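INTERNAL AUDIT FORM
Audit reference: QA-55
Scope: verify that the stored structure record matches its stored sequence.
Auditor: D.O.
Record contents follow.
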Amino acid sequence: MATFVGLRRVYNDTGVYIAQYNSIELTGAFPNFLFNEIDWNISSNFSFTIVMRLLKFLHFSDQSFLMFFAFFILGVYFWFIRKYSNNIFLSVFYVITMGIYTFTMGALRQCIVIAICLIAVDCFLTKKYALFVLLVLFATTFHQYAFIFLIVPLLSFSPWTSRTYIVVFLFLIGSFGMQSILGAIDDFTLAMGKTYSTGSFSGEGVNVFRLIVVWIPTVLSFILKDKLINDGSRAENLFINLSMLNAEIMFLGLFGTANYFARLANFFFDISNDFSSCYYTKIPGC
């Protein structure tokens, strides 16, 4: 599967990354050229630039560049699924059919971040809290919105208890009051080094069919809420809450635009589906 992903030449923004990699010219002696003229602003994704330069120094072709990340990303995904799944074969089937597999051929930096943050989530679950924070901060240097994973310690409560309904209520208030908070979002993204304006958040929202798909894990968890409340593990509670966060942020996209909110929600897309591929294999008849 990783080989197939690594052999692509077109798909989504693949061509942009190939062109970006081929445009790299190394100047100076090793290791100075790795850091020459690097923009250390958090929004510049400097770690990704450094890794590309290192691969260029090692004479990786643009195809090998894609292959390297394909094996890293899918390797981490399947390590994570193998660790938490009761039925690896059914889980792999879910990975293919729920869109995780094809998503890894598109948003390269975002998928790298998700892979790093999957390792970070595992560190959190094994109570390696310092390493969890360090990995999330490291992921932020590949894509600045990875910082949102710092919310993980707040999401290990049992799903569909009073806290869940409070979070859902807050997202509903935020959705219907979207126009009043666009200015604050604009200021926040500017502080992160991006140039989104208020106009960037207006226009066509998330496709309703896309919204329906991302809400499936949340709906299933509601159907099974009694079982989850009674015997859900710490990991299962966290994964369910993260999948809900994916759905809730996507819901905001109905009132804003897919340009921002769908991208933000997609940081939890693979975790949501990875969770589904692991947890629902435990439920007879699911």
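Auditor finding: record pair retrieved intact. The CA atoms of residues 166 and 277 lie 27 Å apart.
Action required: none
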